[in-house]
Amino acid sequence: MLIPGGGADPWYWHPLVDELRGRGHDVVPVDLPSEDDSAGLSEYADAVVEAIGDRTDLIVVAHSLGGFTGPLVCDRLPVDLLVMLQAMVPKPGESPGEWWAATGYEQARREQDALDGRAPDDEETLFYSDTPPALIAEAAKHPRGQSGTPMMKPWPLPAWPDVPTRFLLARDDKFFPAEFLRRVVRERLGIVPDEMPGDHMPMLSHPKELATRLETYRAELPGS
């Protein structure tokens, strides 16, 4: 189950979906109600649960803002593994809107921008520094709005769900800098993230390697 980040539709997952389906896996890129102002995190989790249907042996992959939704799904259904992919890691009672200041994100971004010499208006490099130009051009044809509703309410779980969790970090990301995420993952999950090449959209920039990483995680599960 592939949960997108903010303002992203299932199209963004298609290179990874093709890779995983070609290897024999049942893959579902979830379409979240991201443009619906009546939908918050609970409704996002509802959409994932509905997409799961009666499937079992679940691996949930949560990207970026999807990091607030993935654990909610794991609290509702038996999930074998949660993979946080360049994801926001929530704390109990913290809203997505509060996450940025609570983690020190803005300072980390300013420092990364200074190191990279990135112009403030260079949005393409911010998200797609390692994605092939043809896919960047295609991504521009798939705009998706993001309602602010999910940003306002506290993350409702009292603690991280009892589910095996891996964090996969794309170390070339300019939006969520690697050193920033290493610290957040250590402080909030108490684990060391695994790392791979890629920008904020590793499902576009490195789908084959990402598919291999996910297959490896699956093979390492007990009983696999």
Written overview of the protein:
- With 224 residues, this protein is of the alpha/beta class.
- The protein is built from ten helices and five strands.
- A five-stranded parallel beta sheet has the order 1-2-3-4-5, with helices on both faces.
- Helix 8 links the parallel strand 4 and strand 5.
- The model has no long low-confidence stretch (mean pLDDT 96).
Summarize the entry for a quick read.
With 224 residues, the chain is of the alpha/beta class. Helices cover 40% and strands 9% of the residues.
Primary descriptors:
224 residues, alpha/beta, 10 helices, 5 strands
CA gyration radius, whole angstroms: 16 Å
> Which percent band covers the strand fraction?
5-15%
Following the backbone from N to C, one meets helices and strands in this order, namely EHHEHEHHHHEHEHH
Structural class: alpha/beta
| Helicity, as a percent range | 40-55%
Q: Please tally the helical runs, counting DSSP H or I stretches of 4 or more residues.
A: 10
Q: What is the count of β-strands?
A: 5
Basic shape: globular
Going across the major beta sheet, what is the strand order?
A: 1-2-3-4-5
The end-to-end distance, rounded to whole angstroms, is: 18 Å
What is the typical, i.e. mean, pLDDT? 96
Low-confidence stretches: none
Major sheet: size, sense and barrel closure?
A: 5 strands, parallel
